[in-house]
TrEMBL record:
<protein>
    <submittedName>
        <fullName>Uncharacterized protein</fullName>
    </submittedName>
</protein>
Length: 172
């Protein structure tokens, strides 16, 4: 943030704090990862596709470039729409990746099963999912899969499945 404020003095107060949300909505910044440090600093990775915007020197040129790229991607020719007044668009908050009821059930079984580490991983997965960190979610899902059998006292998934009493069996 300090870099942007130093390079572009005179920005409205609070603008740089809202900039991560603004960039998340811009197609030119999609595909890269992003994050926020514990100190409140943020970062966003840009891919080489951003070069498609190198000729855009004004907001209108940026909008035209975006419209052209989206139209080309959709395979249709659309008229350039008039720009509406900017409005704040509320972002929907994603629900948890793992349902809270399941987490509560696991907590209740913690005395019987060894699920403490599994619970910590599931909570971290929900947190990263809410913060929209897809790569961290993928790694956490892998770690969760590794911790399911030990939570049930088994070494493999086959061991877990063999010890579950199924209500219905699909022999096919």
């Amino acid at each position: 943030m300090a870099d942007i404020e130093r390079e572009l003095p005179g920005l409205p107060k609070g603008f740089t704090g809202r900039l991560p949300g603004i960039l998340a909505l811009e197609s030119a910044t999609w595909g890269g990862s992003s994050g926020t440090t514990a100190e409140g600093k943020w970062w966003r990775e840009l891919h080489r596709e951003i070069r498609q915007y190198r000729e855009a020197k004004t907001l209108m040129e940026y909008v035209r470039t975006t419209a052209r790229l989206i139209t080309a991607q959709a395979g249709a020719t659309l008229p350039t729409p008039a720009l509406p007044e900017p409005a704040s668009v509320p972002q929907p908050t994603p629900g948890p990746y793992v349902d809270e009821a399941l987490i509560t059930d696991l907590e209740d079984k913690d005395a019987v099963l060894r699920v403490g580490k599994l619970l910590a991983l599931v909570r971290e997965l929900n947190s990263n999912y809410a913060d929209q960190h897809p790569y961290a979610c993928q790694m956490l899902l892998r770690a969760i899969l590794d911790h399911v059998p030990p939570a049930f006292g088994e070494r493999t998934f086959q061991g877990v499945v063999a010890n579950v009493s199924w209500e219905r069996t699909d022999k096919a």
